[in-house]
């Protein structure tokens, strides 16, 4: 049996130490340019499903609580109501699910239109007016005191009520309420720790939370509506429709072209009711155009059926729904 000498063993160890090992190359991703990042963020902001964007305006938002009211405050000076109104408008615009129009400061817009030579008729009418108020608002301070320690908790609570009214008929078709709460806590041990003074930001945070809560209800109501749009123009084979990427329309979508049903006034409810429509054609989106919500649209090609050049009594909706 072969026995290795110490010299042979040392030689083998030396050779092993001199042996080289290959390290697999590490894949390095190419840096993403700012343009690509902007494009990715823009694509992520677009809706993933068809969205019917109702045109809304905040007609009135008031403070109906005793908070912030004095004998010297009239209806035109309502800081809490204006704050809630501005917060709601910001969140509605940021949700990307509504087309929001100004109404509360409309006089300023009209004045600016006159300076620019625009007519008052250029203003777009809305589908619904948002009417709301802050119905509850209050603050409380609680805490615990021990032999060497104490805690203090400041809490602000708010509640808002909103309703959506049809701008054409005045019919209130949806109501919702939202609540919000914000708090801060401080404590001391043996005289050391934080001391909390009156925190005015709690008011803002509580109202913001209530507005966010009621916004969720508005979003859920909106999603119940079936998406539809109108025909801008038709030349036989090509159909130009209103609405594009910001309403969830993508190239390749297939839509049904519907003829409006007859409008009949109901003696029972007093409302004008549209009878079910009839599908007359199918179109497929081939391209999109426009760079903003107020000028975007899509170009579709006729797949089957026929579309008249005058699209007044026709509309577009998702096929098979």
Automatic annotation (TrEMBL):
Pfam family, one: CsgG
Superkingdom of source: Bacteria
Keywords, ordered alphabetically: Cell membrane, Lipoprotein, Membrane, Palmitate, Signal
Signal peptide: 1-27
Database matches in InterPro entries: Curli_assmbl/transp-comp_CsgG
Lipoprotein recorded as keyword: yes
Protein name (Swiss-Prot/TrEMBL): Curli production assembly protein CsgG
